[in-house]
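Q: Hi! First time doing this. I have a protein sequence and I read that you can turn it into a structure. Is that right? Here it is:
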Amino acid sequence: MPELPEVETVRDGLARWAVGRTITSVQVNNLRSVRRHLAGPEDLAARLAGQRLESAERRGKFLWLVLPADLALVVHLGMSGQVLVQPPDAPDEKHLHVRFSLEPADLELRFVDQRTFGGVLLDQTIDGVPSTVAHIARDPLDPLFDDALFVKRLRARNSAVKRCLLDQTLVSGIGNIYADEALWRARVHGERLGAALTRAQAVDLLAQVRDVLGEAITAGGTSFDALYVNVNGQSGYFDRSLNAYGREGRPCGRCGAPIRRTAFMNRSSFWCPSCQRPPRVQRHAGLG
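A: Yes, that's right. Below is the predicted 3D structure, encoded as structure tokens:
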């Protein structure tokens, strides 16, 4: 599933190529891709026609295009959603589900989704944030992210720190890949309790999260297959810089120990048994 760097890469592309244009028409080829717009595809198309795309915004993994009158076109990428900017005469993609014709007419937006877990909807905004996104916490790259509050809340939790990083009500945008990478850099095992971290460890972990996300954005995100691409159909290359995720059995770049993989929430965690020692007895009070 796309995480913050991948969504930010798409947002940046939309800001460059789509913002300032006006939607002239909407063609829905797959009803599942507009299922979140409860009023139906005809209502979505009618209300979007004539709307100017004012800006492209993101919170965590959530992406939206700002429209006039406190409206937003929210895009859920799901597992395999893509938002492509294409010339109208480009061949249709196999899984093209929603087409947004634009003015000027030299480009159009296409929502492509192989697995159809994603979708689009029209939503009202509250203080600039769509109502369907308002419950999501700010992400670490948000200028208004509260570091002290995050550290305090993380150290108050008696649950595994990796679970905390994936909790979108605590901090948004971090998924399985970047959680493993940040934990490796911070030398913290994912099963260690948030409450067992010292304040210094929690602060360092947040710094590592920011560094990983920033470097991944610079690389255009992480692409393990063709399902994630930017608006121009290009893959990211941060997978070449991964130190833990997907490297089971390969030597740790820091100490040489073979990276291990363990099951985690129907997914996998990758970690170094030497640099990230598994917790033994964990105290549940904040330390340090």
